[in-house]
Write a structure and sequence with these properties.
Helices cover 79% and strands 0% of the residues. By secondary structure, the chain is an all-alpha fold. The longest helix has 30 residues. It contains 15 helices and no strands. Keywords: Membrane, Transmembrane, Transmembrane helix. This is MFS transporter. It comes from Kitasatospora terrestris.
Length: 401
């Protein structure tokens, strides 16, 4: 009922769906770029270079675009970045056999990824009904889980009906459509950040925020380790559908967890709930070290997922509270970047461990990442608890058209 009331609020469904569609290209790119290049005859070395160029450019570009949004507003940044990102994907689609065009296209598409995630998150305080902010962030977390389920499915459908190159065109169109829906909405058009200081560090001048963002690297590390671990597991155990089935169970557990969490109010402080969810991640990933038979493994996939999205929901609220005035969008963009960096490091670490030891040792990587998060949150708990209240994001933006 909490979610239904939220979805009935002005602009909520429109902005949520628009942002969701516009974020699909980010979940598709990891598949579309390699598939299109392999179809064009590229070797795996160049395929990996192009995919890495996209990922690195996206990680670097996200906080920079977030800072521009805080200075110039959402529409002035979302529209041109959507056009440039689409141009990058089109460059790859039109010249997949030209290495220079592919690399330029990958860097352009990655660095100009429209910052829809941070833009939506700074709008929630303005469009969510009073007392429903945490439910709004929970809904956002569940939508994020569905992005990474639907993205590969859209790629699969596009390839089956047309071709990998056509999937790049679909990707470009989805990005343009999603941004058009969000950027044309009144809350997005009218949103302006608070006046900020000229400090070049932006949100990173808040020590408490840096502590919180650092903790999210550990969560990303755990997720990245899991992405590779399940591939190794599926090679040694018969799992219907293989590794994708295990990851889908993990996503389903995360979706179920956040729907339960966001459907009601919970006692205690945000910092306390964050510690609880981080502890749940430690337990879940710790049990993964056992690498049990598939039936039990399926249960562990659900368990580890159940704590992830609620953990992110608490983090979203705290980021909004801890970010210095005028830097909220950039703060959320840093969250995206550092989480992605942790994921990349976790995947690389597990790959290295699997090359030199058995999977049980590799599974410890996920536990280590969750422990890092729990430790940092425990050490910084007092600062999170005493965080100042989040400033509203312009009352005018909340008014229905």
């Amino acid at each position: 009922m909490s979610f239904l009331a939220l979805l009935r609020s002005p602009f909520v469904t429109r902005l949520l769906l628009g942002s969701w569609v516009g974020r699909l290209p980010s979940a598709m790119a990891a598949l579309t770029i390699p598939l299109a290049l392999r179809e064009a005859g590229s070797g795996y070395g160049f395929v990996g270079a192009a995919a890495s160029a996209y990922a690195i450019a996206a990680a670097v570009g996200s906080p920079l675009l977030g800072r521009l949004v805080d200075r110039w507003g959402q529409t002035r940044i979302l529209v041109p970045t959507a056009l440039l990102a689409a141009a990058g994907f089109l460059a790859i689609a039109l010249a997949p056999r030209e290495p220079a065009a592919v690399l330029v296209g990958a860097v352009l598409a990655g660095s100009m990824t429209p910052p829809l995630e941070p833009c939506l998150r700074v709008l929630w305080p303005a469009i969510a009904p009073e007392g429903k902010l945490e439910s709004a962030y929970a809904l956002d977390s569940s939508a994020q889980e569905l992005v990474f389920v639907a993205g590969p499915l859209v790629v699969t459908g596009s390839v089956a009906i047309w071709s990998p190159t056509a999937a790049l065109y679909v990707q470009a169109l989805l990005g343009l459509f999603g941004v058009a829906v969000v950027a044309s909405a009144r809350p997005s058009r009218e949103w302006r950040a608070e006046t900020r200081s000229g400090d070049w560090l932006g949100p990173l001048r808040s020590g408490r925020l840096v502590t919180l963002l650092s903790a999210m690297i550990g969560v990303g590390f755990a997720i990245g380790s899991l992405n590779v671990l399940v591939v190794s597991y599926a090679e040694h155990w018969h799992v219907p559908g293989g590794a994708p089935t295990l990851l889908a169970l993990n996503a389903f557990g995360s979706l179920a967890g956040v729907l339960v969490y966001g459907s009601r109010s919970w006692p205690g402080t945000l910092a306390g709930r964050g510690l609880l969810f981080a502890g749940g991640l430690v337990v879940g990933y710790g049990l993964l070290v056992l690498l049990p038979p598939p039936g039990w493994m399926a249960g562990l996939m659900l368990l580890t997922g159940a704590f992830l999205a609620p953990m992110l929901t608490v983090t979203f609220v705290l980021v909004g509270e801890l970010a210095p005035p005028g830097t909220t969008t950039e703060a959320f963009a840093w969250l995206v970047t550092l989480f992605a960096a942790g994921t990349s490091l976790g995947s690389a670490a597990v790959g290295t461990v699997l090359a030199h030891a058995d999977a049980h040792w590799a599974a410890l990587c996920g536990t280590a990442g969750a422990l890092v998060t729990l430790t940092i949150l425990a050490l910084g708990r007092r600062g999170f608890t005493t965080a100042p209240a989040a400033a509203p994001a312009t009352a005018e933006a909340a008014a229905p058209r």
